Structures are given as structure tokens and as C-alpha cells.
Amino acid sequence: MTRSIADWLLTWWLHSALMTGLALLVATRVRGAAERDVTWKVALLLPLLTSGLVAFAPATPTATLGIAAAVRPLVPDRWNRLSVDERVIRTPTGVIRSTIERDPLASGTSAALVVAAMLGAMIGLAGFTRRALALHRLRATRHAPSGSVPVLTGITITESDALHSPVALTGREICVTPLCFTLPEREQRALFAHELAHLERRDPEWFMALDLLTSLLLVQPLSAVVLRRLRRDAEFVCDEEAVRRTGDPASLLSSIIAFAGAPRDARLDALAAYTTSPIVERGARIAAMARGAPPRRMMLAVVCALLLGAAVPLAAPALMVRASRTAVSEVMRDGVRVEVDSQVLVRAPARLR
């Protein structure tokens, strides 16, 4: 069991590194923020599936890289010995002779990897908990809005003095600051349109789930880069949606500038749509929208996602800790329940390889 977990962790690390690296490369050729947004999500989530399929499926020599074989020349001989157990199982219908190779180096490597992954998960979970507590403290400071707010079906609008800019929260909630009610009505309308777009896209839920995922799994530096790009492009997409709804890019830009100098709590970035977005780049994009909103090419996003999904399983091998297998010299005709040395009950499969 330990080796299977270690195999999956190593294979996930490899697939995730390749897929996020490919996503970063593809994104340089994709201009639309919505298309890149799909690409980032595929690059972060799909390695979970592909690594499981490859690591737990019957591996072929061309699809497997043995970690134990790679490190074997580097370890002392006393830690590098293979043991072989031969067993003979007599059954009412025949005899099964099996040879089992035991590799202490592979067992030790897999155990060390699982322990390291557990320690990394504990550290990552501690950081996630710290951010979750910051969000919990924010929720404790909420109260009813002090000014007039638009009526949005199914959306709760609250206010908090602890915030320095509006935030979209899980549970379909928008939390604003007292500064929001000092803005002109047109800027308030653009601001609420932007936050509403975050809720419709489920950005708070996406950010929380992906932050938890990358906190629990083995450290993979490119995942953090992709997460930052995802949050940045989420802001771009919501800016575009706000302009489409209001038809007033100037008011959206003015509302962003009003909050540009406000300090932010970085602990909320991963758990809510509350991120330190690039103000200058957002301003340039919004100014360009005044000349016409960019078209969305979702078909391009689908193609990019499919390419990413197909490239890794076809090109990437599985990283396996173990290098030994069980060799069976005789095979029973039918699976039966048999007694071995009057101690262990074994169900012999119909076909063993």
C-alpha cells in the first residue's frame, strides 16, 4: 500500500510539472483571459486523473521509470540487497510455484517519500488553516450595509470595516467596505457587476479548493505559478463581464483606482476572490474595452484543454518506486480457496502474470 501511494505521488509530481509547464507555454500564445482560465484549471486538476490511471494501471517497461533502479548505484551494498522467497502452494487442482522478490531499498524509498509527503501536507495544511482563520475572522466582522445596495437575486450583500476593498465570498456573498458607498452610483454599479461575475464563476470556491489541493499534495513549484496566473486572469475575465453588463468601462476603471492604494490581506487571496491584481495591466485592458470588448473564443479553450489532457498521459511515464515483481511459474485453471501450511487461506486468481 505504501509503495502504491508513493508511486502515485511521484507520478502526480511528474505529470503536474509537465502539464503546468505546458500550460504556461501554451498561455503565451493565448490572448484571451477566459481561454487561459480554462487552461489553468485543466493543468491543475487533470494530473490527479492521469497520474492515477498510469500509476495504478498495469505498467509497461516503456511507460515506467524505476526510482529504486536509479538510486541503487548511489547507496551502500548493505542497503542494496535483494531477497528472493520461493513458495509452493498445493491445491486440489494443481500446484502454484511462485518466486517473490523483496527489495528493501524500494520499501525504504517509498516509506521515506510517504513520510515526506505527510510532513509537507501538514505544513501546507497549517498555512491553509491560517488563511481559513483569517477568512473566519473577517466573517465575524460583517454587518448590514450602511448604504443602499442593489437587489441581486440569491446574493447576500454585507459590509465590513476590516476590509479595504470589496470581496466575493463563498456562499454567494459580496462583502463591501464603507468606502464603496462614497463612490458615485455608476462606479458602484460597475463594482457590484465585477463582484457578481466572481460569484457566477464560482471563483471563491475554485480558489479555496485549488489552494487546499496544492497545500496537501507534494510540493510542485509550477503549481503556485499557475495559481497566481489563474487569480490574475479571473480578475481580467470579471472586468470583461462587468463592462459587458454596464457598458461603462470608465466607471469600472475609476472604481478600481479608488481602491488601488488600499492595503490588502494576502491571507484572503487563496480563499476568496480578493487578490492583488495588476492594476496597470487591468487599467490598460479596460481602456481597450472602450474600443470594443474582446470576443471570447471558448472553442480555443476547449482545444487547449484537450491538448493538455492528451499530451501528458501519452508522453509522460509513470515514476515507480518498486522495481520487483512476483513471477509465477505454474498457473491454476480455476480460482479456488486453498489452505497453505494449515495457517493462511489464499484465494488464487484464475490467471497470474
Largest sheet: 3 strands, antiparallel
Q: How many helical stretches? A: 10
- Which structural category do the helix and sheet elements fall into? alpha/beta
Question: Helices and strands, in N-to-C order?
Answer: HHEHEEHEEEHHHHHHEEEE
User: Which stretches are poorly predicted, pLDDT < 50 over at least 5 residues?
Assistant: 323-353
Q: Would you tell me the overall average pLDDT?
A: 75
Could you tell me the strand content as a percent range? Answer: 5-15%
The order of strands across the largest sheet is 2-3-8
Helical fraction equals 40-55%
Q: What number of structural domains do the residues give?
A: 1
Count of distinct strands: 10
Could you tell me how far the N terminus lies from the C terminus, measured between alpha carbons in angstroms? Answer: 20 Å
Q: What is the gyration radius calculated from CA atoms?
A: 27 Å
In words, what does this structure look like?
With 353 residues, the chain is an alpha/beta fold. It has one domain (2-71, 104-320). The chain is built from ten helices and ten strands. The strands form four sheets. The chain has a three-stranded antiparallel beta sheet, with no helix packed on it. A hairpin with a 2-residue loop joins strand 2 and strand 3 (94-102). Helix 2 packs antiparallel against helix 7 and helix 6 (203-216) packs antiparallel against helix 7 (221-246). The protein is elongated and about 85 Å long. 33% of the residues are buried. Mean pLDDT is 75; it is low at 323-353.
